Amino acid sequence: MGRFESPKADLESGYVSGASASSSGELPSIVLTKQHLKFLNGTLNNLAPIDILRWAKITFPNLYQTTAFGLTGLVTLDLLSKLQKETPTAAPIDVIFLDTLYHFQETRTLIEKIKARYSNINLHIYKPEGVNTTAEFEAKHGTELWKSSPDHYDFIAKVEPAQRAYADLAVAAIFTGRRRSQGAKRESLDIVEVDDAGLIKINPLASWSFKQVQEYIKENNVPYNELLDRGYKSVGDWHSTEPVKEGEDERAGRWKGTSKSECGIHNKRSKYAQFLHEAEQKRQQDMLAAKLEQVEIKQEHVEEILAKA
Description:
single chain, Rossmann-like_a/b/a_fold
């Protein structure tokens, strides 16, 4: 992403984030060893989300919230708004939204409601590079790219814009809306994580259930996505989101019928790295197939010469 050093300082853990201090004003390194992370998570697991948010605000520089305005993200947003009222002179937490250009209209309507409700919110919107509309995206990348090349789509629509946002804003740490009760790969989620790129991720509501999130939204009159009243529990792109059936995990409606459960942003291994790896494998397979074809042609030619001799 440009602003992070490669993890190298802590050979035992490999958990290093931030950028080295320099005269240019870059952020100092933030080092979290495995032992430190274990201690932090053991302690933070006993705290309420608002206390986790308080702790993170005074601990990490260049801290942002990333959200697609799902229920958990909305709770976090509301809690941060309350914290801002407690300490009005403190710097607010800006919000990053990745506009894939394929969000539901209900999601876009919600964003306008959120901007009206939280007038002091500083929202950074990032779209796929070089395009502003769905038509422009499809003219550049083709229609239904999510079907023909899902990994490529994830990188172009989500991973690259996220990496660009983190680089542009010099993001050192982010709040996410992930929770253990969402199921799939999130059941063992920690409060604090460090990803392969060195980005610190804080999941303040990791221990909350869907019911707790719902109750908070209702009790505090927080605007939410109308789709949630129609059977949806986790809302992403319209082409890969469906209502959830009774007894299914919250995220069962995302990429239904596939083995997929994450878009790549929160995967342990960079989705882009996976995409490049698969592209390289395909290139090598194509090269091998071409060589075999050449060998077969040469063999046929030899057989023709021998037949004429």
